[in-house]
Write a structure and sequence with these properties.
17% strand, 121 residues, two-stranded antiparallel ribbon, alpha+beta, single chain, Signal recognition particle alu RNA binding heterodimer, srp9/1
């Protein structure tokens, strides 16, 4: 049985005004061309229906750079070195979630790095 990830879940993201696009199955890249244009506008109903019918069995991804609330953009950072991670996170206000290995955690306000899966600090 084929999983219909995009077809079954894209509407949830679109309802929240998030720019969900189809990703190639098993890969970390879009299955459409010219995808970056969706960082500043949402799809019309006709294009949504087409994607769900023709790419419904694809994965799902979000276009970074999209404004999700006034003045706040969706961003993703891929940093492998701890030094760079600390330098970048030091410039981001608030308490952004950080992915390490298989889990997500938040950087603590005291600068210590929690380990493990999910931490809410």
């Amino acid at each position: 049985m084929t999983s219909r990830v995009f077809a079954e879940h894209a509407d949830v993201y679109w309802a929240k005004k998030l720019p969900a696009i189809p990703f190639k199955r098993g890969e970390k890249r879009p299955s459409i061309t010219n995808w970056s244009r969706f960082s500043d506008h949402l799809l019309g109903d006709e294009e949504r229906d087409f994607w769900k019918s023709k790419r419904g069995d694809h994965g799902i991804g979000l276009v970074m750079g999209a404004e999700v609330v006034p003045g706040k953009c969706l961003i993703g950072l891929d940093v492998d070195e701890g030094y760079f991670e600390r330098a970048i996170l030091g410039d981001i206000p608030g308490n952004p979630p950080v992915k390490r290995g298989q889990g997500m955690h938040r950087v603590r306000s005291d600068g210590k790095q929690p380990s493990g899966a999910i931490h809410h600090v």
